[in-house]
Write a structure and sequence with these properties.
alpha+beta; M1 Pyruvate Kinase, Domain 3; seven-stranded mixed barrel; 4 helices
């Protein structure tokens, strides 16, 4: 039996239950007030101009409106995080939902709580920080061409209509650009 980090992660990934399709649930919300800081919160307020109120993105000199918010599957994050404190990854919204690019391709629209968000064309790939904060082999695992369409690192979103997002809120795909 192959016990390499990639084969172990593949086994763990295959053992995950299938994620919801077309609708999901918010499992965890994270605010990043300053670089390296993480606050697990129950509610996020989002605006078109500023993304998440109180998040460091609003003060960044290099802010890209396509990258206002990041969203990742909670079960995948737990699988890739060495101590299960998944907020270390820096994503804002952790969900129980499939993010396959056939469903949530660029331009797709989701409603979470009272906010409407659109999937950004900007890919959310792993980087050196992600590699340092993950289990051994995580970056290599999520970067495999065969898994790319599953977007295991998550997606970027930007705000179409402001609102509030709460833990437990439903995530509804209002328009799936890839299949409609």
């Amino acid at each position: 039996m192959d016990s390499s980090p990639l084969s172990l992660l593949q086994s763990r990934y295959e053992a995950l239950r299938p994620a919801s399709w077309l609708q999901g649930t918010v499992k965890k919300l994270v605010l990043r007030p300053e670089s390296g800081e993480r606050q697990v919160v129950e509610t996020l307020r989002v605006t078109r101009e500023g993304g998440i109120e109180g998040d460091r993105w609003t003060r960044s000199r290099k802010r890209d409106s396509d990258c206002q918010i990041t969203m990742m599957r909670e079960d995948v994050a737990r699988m890739l995080c060495p101590d299960e404190k998944i907020e270390v990854f820096g994503d804002n919204i952790f969900v129980d939902m499939d993010m396959d690019d056939r469903l949530l391709s660029c331009g797709s629209v989701v409603r979470i709580g009272t906010a409407w968000l659109q999937v950004s064309p900007e890919p959310h790939n792993g980087c050196g920080k992600f590699k340092k904060r993950s289990v051994e082999g995580a970056l290599e695992f999520i970067s495999q061409p065969a898994l790319h369409k599953h977007r295991l690192r998550g997606i970027h979103l930007f705000v179409l209509n402001p609102g509030e997002i709460h833990v437990g809120d439903a995530i509804v795909v209002e328009w799936a650009a890839g299949i409609i």
